[in-house]
Design a protein that fits this description.
15% strand, alpha/beta, 246 residues, 7 strands, 7 helices, Rossmann fold, seven-stranded parallel beta sheet
Length: 246
């Protein structure tokens, strides 16, 4: 993705901070137009709106509100008229033992981490059909690969996202839409700020590369899957975890 990306449009969910912010920044730097959303704005959103008034769109959206999600897709269509790339990055993590997790909390985890990406993917894929096709990158989690205590509902939703990607690759491939999943391991992000020093040491010890990943390394993998260099890759899950699941 270099100058040839000029004019193309990316939708990145959860783009106000963390991995979503990094992916958004790098796409803007490569001349993409980017639409993103989060529940609340951030300093980055305000800065990007000033620096890229013609190529950046942010809207306040809660992933659990499907009607607002549909309104966002219409705003993208009205503003840019196309979608070439969707990065389903937004999500939420809740940690609690399964035996005490309420049904309402389970529904929330599935709604935010699986149902909302499904709906947005459907909306964006319809816009991709009007052009030359497109690319979808779903962000999963190694919780979908390895079992960890206290995250069963979250892990189930992320595993569903991986299954969705494989099925959609079959269905959307004839429309020239590639669908892949990136499954990150532990990397420095908003979701890992509460990880204790003791647990960080355990993670490093169990990871063959001996460290947590960086947000830039995970963004590298996202942008690779979105790039022409991955043009013959679809229906796959790329695990970027420093080897902790090998």
């Amino acid at each position: 993705m270099t100058a040839s990306a000029t004019g193309r449009v990316a939708v990145v969910t959860g783009g106000s901070r963390g991995l979503g912010r990094t992916v958004t920044e790098r796409l803007l730097a490569q001349d993409w137009r980017v639409a993103t959303f989060s529940r609340t704005p951030s300093d980055f959103v305000e800065e990007a709106s000033r620096r890229h008034p013609d190529s950046f769109l942010w809207e306040p959206v809660d992933l659990s509100d499907l009607e607002v999600l549909r309104a966002f897709s219409k705003a993208v269509d009205n503003r840019f008229g196309r979608v070439d790339l969707l990065v389903n990055n937004g999500g939420a993590l809740h940690q609690e033992l399964f035996l005490t997790t309420s049904a309402q909390r389970m529904r929330e985890m599935v709604a935010v981490n699986l149902l909302a990406p499904m709906v947005l993917t459907q909306l964006c894929a319809r816009l991709m059909m009007r052009g030359q096709g497109g690319t979808i990158v779903n962000i999963s989690s190694i919780n979908a690969v390895r079992g960890y205590r206290g995250v069963s509902a979250y892990a189930a939703a992320k595993a569903g996202l991986e299954g969705l990607g494989r099925s959609l690759a079959r269905e959307l491939g004839p429309l020239n839409i590639r669908v892949n999943t990136l499954t990150p391991g532990f990397f420095d992000s908003d979701m890992t700020t509460d990880v204790t020093d003791e647990n960080r040491s355990t993670i490093r010890r169990r990871t063959p590369l001996g460290r947590l990943g960086s947000v830039d390394e995970i963004a590298d993998a996202v942008l690779f899957l979105a790039s022409p260099q991955a043009g013959f890759i679809t229906g796959q899950t790329l695990i970027a975890d420093g080897g902790i699941t090998c």
